Automatic annotation (TrEMBL):
Residues 25-45 are annotated as: Disordered. NCBIfam families: cytochro_C551. The keyword Transport applies. Residues 26-45 have a biased composition (Low complexity). Residues 1-27 form the signal peptide. SUPFAM superfamilies: Cytochrome c (SSF46626). This is Cytochrome c domain-containing protein. Residues 42-115 form the Cytochrome c domain.
Amino acid sequence: MRKKWMGLSLGLMLAIGLAACGGGNNADNDNNNTGNDTGGETATNDAEEIVKNNCISCHGENLEGQNGPELAHIGSKLSKDDILDVIENGRPGMPGNLITGDDADKVAQWLSEKK
């Protein structure tokens, strides 16, 4: 009986953790894109907002890590393409495609600059 409860508890914790990683929805992200993105500071602000809406519940408000790994210095470990691959395809404990398209590219670029 105890094993049954432990298994149920672990399954519930995993489900809550995965649900939390999807904190925002892509409709919110689409509203932030005005079509006037000339790069630079605007792209950085967009990326920060996208991360705030989708990632901090697992990776922490300052990317210090919580349920998910620390990302504050991820650019010193992974390239932009590697980060984009993780965003698109996920990893164990992180579902893929929480962020897609141009938003995923902006976030990958921004995170790759975190050294």
